[in-house]
Structure formats: structure tokens, C-alpha cells
Design goal:
mainly alpha, 434 Repressor (Amino-terminal Domain), 56% helix
Length: 121
């Protein structure tokens, strides 16, 4: 009995990936979960990048916030979704001058950015 195996090229792999991704993203439930997770990813990465742009280490950030380095590490942890608005305010304040926290409220039906963005200093 002979087994025939097909060898895939890198181009085939990319095409198959894109087809599967499109199929999954067409499912509204999957898309909602994907979008929610993407927002979490964006936030932790923005926090880390902002701290680095400010030229601060986690230890220095912790001193400015009055917390431990381990707490700063948890705030910046990939996938963290337990941020409080107060924690985010304190984090941004500790970054120093020039950094702001912006919260946008989107309408549920249109998902259009509201006229006013709330800036928290």
C-alpha cells in the first residue's frame, strides 16, 4: 500500500492560513472574541512602549507609583485584563509630562468614535 504525500510550499501555507483566518473571522462570535483579545494585547504593549519612551525601568516606574516592581510587571503583563481606571491613571501620571490616557466611547450599533474623547490626566 502506497501513501502519497503532498509537499506544501511556503506560498501554499500562507494561502491556507489566509483562507482559514477569513473563514473564522466571518463568524461573528469568533470575531468578537478576537477583537476583545486584540484590545488587551494593544493596551499592555502601549504601556510598555510608553514606559520605555519615558526612559524608565520597571523599578523606577514602581518607585514613582509607590508600588513594587512586581506590581508594575503584572500591570504590563501580556494578556492582563484586570486594569482599573485608577491604576491606568496612576501609571500614566508616573510616566511624567506629555503622556495622557485617552478613553474612547463607541456607539454599540455604529461602532463609530464618539464626538468627544475623554482625556484623563
Amino acid at each position: 500500500m502506497s501513501t502519497i504525500s503532498k509537499k506544501y510550499t511556503q506560498k501554499d501555507g500562507a494561502r491556507l492560513y489566509e483562507e482559514e483566518r477569513a473563514r473564522r473571522m466571518a463568524d461573528p462570535e469568533y470575531r468578537a472574541i478576537y477583537d476583545e483579545e486584540a484590545v488587551k494585547l494593544d493596551l499592555w504593549l502601549q504601556l510598555v512602549e510608553a514606559r520605555m519612551d519615558a526612559g524608565l525601568t520597571q523599578v523606577e516606574m514602581a518607585q514613582r507609583m509607590g508600588v513594587t516592581q512586581a506590581q508594575v510587571s503584572r500591570i504590563e503583563k501580556k494578556g492582563n485584563d484586570s486594569y482599573t481606571l485608577n491604576t491606568l491613571r496612576r501609571y500614566v501620571k508616573a510616566l511624567g509630562d506629555g503622556f495622557t490616557l485617552e478613553v474612547r466611547v463607541l456607539t454599540p450599533q455604529k461602532q463609530v468614535e464618539s464626538e468627544e474623547a475623554v482625556e484623563i490626566h
